[in-house]
């Protein structure tokens, strides 16, 4: 066992796990005050659900056997017969690789939660994630990262452009279409609960993303360092790109915009980070962010699909662009496992064509399977809350909790302000006592 590689992957796994509560803060800060608890719970509870699913059948369906190049078998259910101490090619224990992949299985379904906040029933979301993981996510892992047909074709995806971001983004779009818009959609912008949480969540996600991207090298080597560097360059480029576009089109930068641009860069570089140069990372970050910005501001309003927090606009669109541009900028000079250079590095159309194929397949596969799951599941579990509960807010309607416990205090203070004359004497006495004991 390589102590250096194993230590590196333990830290990377922790960082990837840390991304999910970061995402909870990011989404929780963006929604209205009536849906904060529901949104954060919907993201965070996946930590428990996805871990149990992964141990039960996820690892087996992803990495055990091969059925038609699409999915694994069930011979390793509940890790039965898996030698967790066996070493991988980078000299890390199989058990550690299993844990690292488990963290990806947690964060991926959490991404599409942002599309459906404020109107989806918690029980439906819980049930959907179970079937989605088994029928869509685990087969995608197998097809791209194990012994599946996309891997055999030569498709490359360093850390999850197809498996994670396009997959989650398309799911977000399909769920939004079936769920329908919020009752007040298009009637003014939603007041964000706490944009400081959005910044906090973005910072946590950026830090955690180094475990996501650099960790996917599965060793402490030059490829991991390159993935770290390209992730940083692409993200910085995306942040500045979104901010400059906002300044040109809106006249001023916004914190929410800067945070959204940051995520677009992290998403776009994910499939390419271990295969491209810093120049490639720069162009991937810029082009993907411009595309996402155009979709969110120009095309989305015309589609009429209420993707509440732009899960598709960010993860789907930037993921698609990053996956395709990997076929343009990938080079053997960065990573010797690249068998065919990208189009811009003299490799011709082949790798670019393979990346187009993988991207198109992921979109089609996820769309068809999502529709099937939703149509069948709706017959058993009601998908959407009623209008009264939506107006009340899912925090109270679904959970009986509220995020802001200063609400009652605020109402008391407003009473004091309304009847200030009656409280002048008491307030003066309190201030005098305060000054006396300072």
TrEMBL record:
<feature type="transmembrane region" description="Helical">
    <location>
        <begin position="96"/>
        <end position="117"/>
    </location>
</feature>
<dbReference type="Pfam" id="PF00909">
    <property type="entry name" value="Ammonium_transp"/>
</dbReference>
<feature type="transmembrane region" description="Helical">
    <location>
        <begin position="218"/>
        <end position="242"/>
    </location>
</feature>
<comment type="similarity">
    <text>Belongs to the ammonia transporter channel (TC 1.A.11.2) family.</text>
</comment>
<keyword id="KW-0472">Membrane</keyword>
<dbReference type="InterPro" id="IPR018047">
    <property type="entry name" value="Ammonium_transpt_CS"/>
</dbReference>
<feature type="transmembrane region" description="Helical">
    <location>
        <begin position="254"/>
        <end position="274"/>
    </location>
</feature>
<protein>
    <recommendedName>
        <fullName>Ammonium transporter</fullName>
    </recommendedName>
</protein>
<feature type="transmembrane region" description="Helical">
    <location>
        <begin position="280"/>
        <end position="299"/>
    </location>
</feature>
<feature type="domain" description="Ammonium transporter AmtB-like">
    <location>
        <begin position="8"/>
        <end position="403"/>
    </location>
</feature>
<keyword id="KW-0812">Transmembrane</keyword>
<feature type="transmembrane region" description="Helical">
    <location>
        <begin position="192"/>
        <end position="212"/>
    </location>
</feature>
<keyword id="KW-1133">Transmembrane helix</keyword>
<keyword id="KW-0813">Transport</keyword>
<feature type="transmembrane region" description="Helical">
    <location>
        <begin position="6"/>
        <end position="28"/>
    </location>
</feature>
<feature type="transmembrane region" description="Helical">
    <location>
        <begin position="124"/>
        <end position="145"/>
    </location>
</feature>
<keyword id="KW-0924">Ammonia transport</keyword>
<dbReference type="InterPro" id="IPR029020">
    <property type="entry name" value="Ammonium/urea_transptr"/>
</dbReference>
<feature type="transmembrane region" description="Helical">
    <location>
        <begin position="351"/>
        <end position="377"/>
    </location>
</feature>
<feature type="transmembrane region" description="Helical">
    <location>
        <begin position="311"/>
        <end position="331"/>
    </location>
</feature>
<dbReference type="InterPro" id="IPR024041">
    <property type="entry name" value="NH4_transpt_AmtB-like_dom"/>
</dbReference>
<dbReference type="InterPro" id="IPR001905">
    <property type="entry name" value="Ammonium_transpt"/>
</dbReference>
<feature type="transmembrane region" description="Helical">
    <location>
        <begin position="40"/>
        <end position="61"/>
    </location>
</feature>
<feature type="transmembrane region" description="Helical">
    <location>
        <begin position="151"/>
        <end position="180"/>
    </location>
</feature>
């Amino acid at each position: 066992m390589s102590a250096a590689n194993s230590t590196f992957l333990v830290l990377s796994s922790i960082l990837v796990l840390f991304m999910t509560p970061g995402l909870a803060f990011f989404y929780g800060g963006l929604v209205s005050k009536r849906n904060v608890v529901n949104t954060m719970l919907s993201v965070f509870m996946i930590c428990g659900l996805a871990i149990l699913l992964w141990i039960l059948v996820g690892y087996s369906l992803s990495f055990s056997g091969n059925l038609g190049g699409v999915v694994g078998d069930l011979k390793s259910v509940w890790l039965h017969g898996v030698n967790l101490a066996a070493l991988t090619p980078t000299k890390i224990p199989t058990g550690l690789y299993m844990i690292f992949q488990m963290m990806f299985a947690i964060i991926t379904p959490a991404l599409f939660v942002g599309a459906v906040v404020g109107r989806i029933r918690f029980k439906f979301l819980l049930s959907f994630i179970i079937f989605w993981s088994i029928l869509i996510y685990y087969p995608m892992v197998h097809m791209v990262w194990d012994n599946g047909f996309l891997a055999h074709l030569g498709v490359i995806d360093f850390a999850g452009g197809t498996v994670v971001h396009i997959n989650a983004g398309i799911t977000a779009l399909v769920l939004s279409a079936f769920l329908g818009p919020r009752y007040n959609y298009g009637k003014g912008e939603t007041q964000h609960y706490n944009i400081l949480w959005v910044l906090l969540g973005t910072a946590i996600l950026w830090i955690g993303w180094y475990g996501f991207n650099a960790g996917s090298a599965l060793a402490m080597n030059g490829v991991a360092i390159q993935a770290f560097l390209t992730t940083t360059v692409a993200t910085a480029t995306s942040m500045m790109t979104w901010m400059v576009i906002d300044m040109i089109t809106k006249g001023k930068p916004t914190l929410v915009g800067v945070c959204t641009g940051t995520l677009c860069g992290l998403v776009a570089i994910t499939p390419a980070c271990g295969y491209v140069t810093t120049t490639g990372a720069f162009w991937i970050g810029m082009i993907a962010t411009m595309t996402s910005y155009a979709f969110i501001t120009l095309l989305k309003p015309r589609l009429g699909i209420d993707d509440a927090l732009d899960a598709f606009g960010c993860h789907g669109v930037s993921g698609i662009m990053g996956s395709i541009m990997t076929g343009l900028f990938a080079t053997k000079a960065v990573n010797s496992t690249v068998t065919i250079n990208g189009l811009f590095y003299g490799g011709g159309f082949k790798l670019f064509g393979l990346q187009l194929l993988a991207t198109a397949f992921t979109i089609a596969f996820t769309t068809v399977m999502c529709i099937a799951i939703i149509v069948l599941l709706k017959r058993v579990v009601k998908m959407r809350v009623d209008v009264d509960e939506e107006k009340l807010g899912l925090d109270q309607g679904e959970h009986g909790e509220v995020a802001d416990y200063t609400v009652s205090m605020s109402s008391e203070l407003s009473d004091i302000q309304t009847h200030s004359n009656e409280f002048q004497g008491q307030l003066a006495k309190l201030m005098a006592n305060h000054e006396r004991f300072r």
